[in-house]
Design goal:
Layout lengths: L19 E8 L3 H12 L4 E5 L6 H5 L5 E2 L8 E2 H12 L5 E4 L3 E7 L2 E6 L4 E9 L5 E4 L29 E5 L3 H10 L5 E6 L8 H12 L4 E4 L1 E8 L2 E9 L2 E6 L2 E4 L3 E4 L15 E2 L12 E3 L4 E2 L7 H19 L14 H7 L3
Parallel strand pairs: 1-2, 1-8, 2-5, 8-19, 10-11, 10-16, 11-12, 18-20
Antiparallel strand pairs: 3-4, 6-7, 7-8, 9-17, 13-14, 14-15
Bound molecules: flavin-adenine dinucleotide.
The site of flavin-adenine dinucleotide has 37 residues, from α1, β2, α2, β9 and α6.
Amino acid sequence: MSAEGAMGSLPVNGSTAAPIEADAVIIGAGPVGLFAVFELGLLDIKAQLVDILDKPGGQCAELYPEKPIYDIPGLPVVTGQELTDRLMQQIKPFAPTFHLGQRVDALERHGGRFRLLTDTGTVFVTKVVVVAAGGGSFTPKRPPLAGIEAYEGKSVFYAVRRIEDFRGKDVLIVGGGDSALDWVLNLQPVAKRLTLVHRRDEFRGAPHSVEKMRSLVADKKMDLRIGQVSALHGENGVLMGATIRAKEGDVRIDCTRLLPFFGLTMKLGPVANWGLNLNENLIPVDTAKFETSEAGIFAVGDINTYPGKLKLILSGFHEAALMAQAAYHIVFPGKKLLFQYTTSSSSLQRKLGVS
Ligand SMILES: Cc1cc2nc3c(=O)[nH]c(=O)nc-3n(C[C@H](O)[C@H](O)[C@H](O)COP(=O)(O)OP(=O)(O)OC[C@H]3O[C@@H](n4cnc5c(N)ncnc54)[C@H](O)[C@@H]3O)c2cc1C
């Protein structure tokens, strides 16, 4: 962990926004990060959640939303997405603030607290940090196109942060899953012309999205090309066109924006730079508090390691409960913590909005 105050000199993508003061910032909105909101909330600790994905649920929502999980206590079968939805419902009374589509890049000590910085310039100053980063940050897969790096961030984007940035542009979207189809439907009304390229005439996305896309194509409101992008054309990061390799031969189309949706991989990412002790890309913690080598920074879920660790959702839930008990003493120093059951404590039930 770098010296106190050093972060003031770090670039914040031009943001001059005031820091968000928080009791707890949770890095990662996977199932364990979500349940951590619940356990912290029961102890009056309000959480801010940050995730690089544009939706909560981590691996469950991104990698296997429709697969059934059979080992969540009390839920004999639940899909990845249903579990996420249920967790979102369970934490609703604690109204956590979500900062989605943002990656926490820097984490440093700041007085008696911590300062965090995201890649979009959001700054947090917080008493407690909960690293629930799972297998690391989801990172988009880069298509194998020569010179694509030069266009990234200027003409080539792996996510849409602002629809307005695509207004009046010739947009090329590549992919056949839900992300590609969702952005086809969202950007078609604002783009000058939108083209979807997919390697085959079958789509993995939701059937109603496929249907809507096909009816836009039939109405000549957008183009669909079956093939693969084989080359990009432009200069100094400014895209002018792309070559599509199709059955009928190569076709060059005009485009100034390219959105490739080739899926995501998990990489440890910035967690490695925060000065925390690491053991084979995992964060060692104690099993009483799930605290890292830095007091006040906790690690729960798949990102942590300790003797006997099992990378299971249920283990992460247990870890979140014990972490919250320890975090309480940092957020409310000197205050006594009473152990209470949700079944019988009217104070807990009031917090849950059920009494
Ligand atoms: C196919 C498959 C099937 C599985 N089946 C089961 C099962 O049956 N039962 C079971 O218990 N487990 C199962 N698992 C494992 C389970 O999904 C994980 O244990 C669980 O998702 C871990 O939750 P987590 O919240 O710790 O991390 P994750 O779900 O990995 O979420 C971590 C989140 O942190 C975010 N993040 C990371 N770094 C940053 C950063 N710097 N800034 C912002 N955000 C960041 C990531 O984008 C991610 O969304 C399965 C996993 C897979 C892949």
